[in-house]
Amino acid sequence: MATTLYRQLTRLVLPLAGAHALWRAARDGGGRYLRQRLGRGRPAGPFALWVHCASVGEVQAAAPLVAALAERVQGPVLMTTNTPTGAAVAARELPAAVTHAYLPLDAPGPVRRFLDAVQPRCALVLETEIWPNLFAACGGRGLPLALVNGRLSPRTIRAPAWLRRALSRALDAVSLCLARSEADAGRFRELGLAAERVRVAGNLKYARRPAVSGSVEGPGLARPYVLAASTREGEEALVAAAWEAAETDGRLLVVAPRHPERRDAIRRDLGERQVAVRSRGDEVTAATEVYLADTLGELAGFMAHADLVFMGGSLVPRGGHNLLEPAALGCAIVTGPHTDNFAEEAAALAAAGGLVEVADADGLAGALTGLLADPDRRRALGEAARAAVAERAEVLDHYLEVLGEWCPSLAGRSRD
Q1: CB atoms within 10 A of CB 319
Q2: What tens digit of pLDDT does each residue of 141-183 get?
Q3: Which tens digit of pLDDT belongs to each residue from 258-269?
Q4: Can you say whether the dihedral through the CA atoms of 93, 320, 342, 29 is positive or negative?
Q5: Sign of the dihedral defined by the CA atoms of residues 373, 377, 383, 389, in that order
Q6: Residue 205 DSSP code
Q7: Against a cut of 0.85, is the pTM above it?
Q8: Cβ-based neighbour number of residue 298 at 10 Å
Q9: DSSP state of 259
Q10: 3-class SS at 254?
Q11: Annotation marks residue 58 as catalytic
Q12: Helices in 246-328 by DSSP H: which ranges?
């Protein structure tokens, strides 16, 4: 009943989803995005492996695993994403042999056309991407399907009963779930995934290794700076206010928003402040108050050369963003109270002495003042964060071992 209701709803909203796909194609996705979201214009299979990642964060998490598996499988590898930004990161971080396509909308027609074209031999889906129509179609074709780095929020467990039932039925197609943590594994079991199919494998994001700070190209700014990374709607104004209330000793505030296309809205939110915009090639002068880093592919460089990194999505209730990248770079990190999506990582870093958590913008101002005046404290934070990540670096080997047992074609010998 729940699955039938879901399918009826998808048919009803398909015109709206198609309209959104058209708008996104016109904005930044192009014709390929529109065609492939509708299940057309797909690369021809069969593919030895298909990996799906929602967007940027999931692609970055999956990149080390996909690169390793691409060396093992006998045949081509496909990665799908939902967004053009995810596609851009995939093109930059994955081997050239990995083909990219966009995931179809979760409706029977687009899903059928997609699977008919790509014909995968096995499939890995990252984190929380549970699509009932897609999963049902995979199950109907006997396609081995695994959830990788699986996570579920408490909010999903509190969803309406009909939606929980639809998600539970979708999970019937999943033969293996490698959860990030015991808490996530428990939520998958609570949602209905058979206990024998769920294993705690650790957080795959610990396997990601940005280049060490000495070799990451810096942004070439004329002044020392603090980075506010992956900021979200309404957060830039809070960070800027905290910055003005802090003692920053002439440093520059650099804001790197999660979605660079918000640049115009961010400039409005920053009011009369002197803002330089990277995509326009604006020069940083003594009068510049905020530098808006609205480009893709440069975040690691900004992190590595910052005096301090504030990780965004955490002063506003958006669940936070990946703390492990700045930690692996040895950055001193500050975060707000909203880290629900990265609770395990935040707890591990805090326990190791590699993270400062603040309650609000006033707390951020105080943390900025204290840390910017104490380089030894910043150095100790960064070293503790780097060590906490290094301790968990073996997670990739564990994933490869378990996936090789699950699907023998993923355990093939590396190519010379």
Answers
A1: 16
A2: 999 999 999 999 888 888 888 888 989 999 999 999 999 999 9
A3: 999 899 999 999
A4: negative
A5: negative
A6: G
A7: no
A8: 15
A9: S
A10: strand
A11: yes
A12: 263-269, 299-304, 324-328
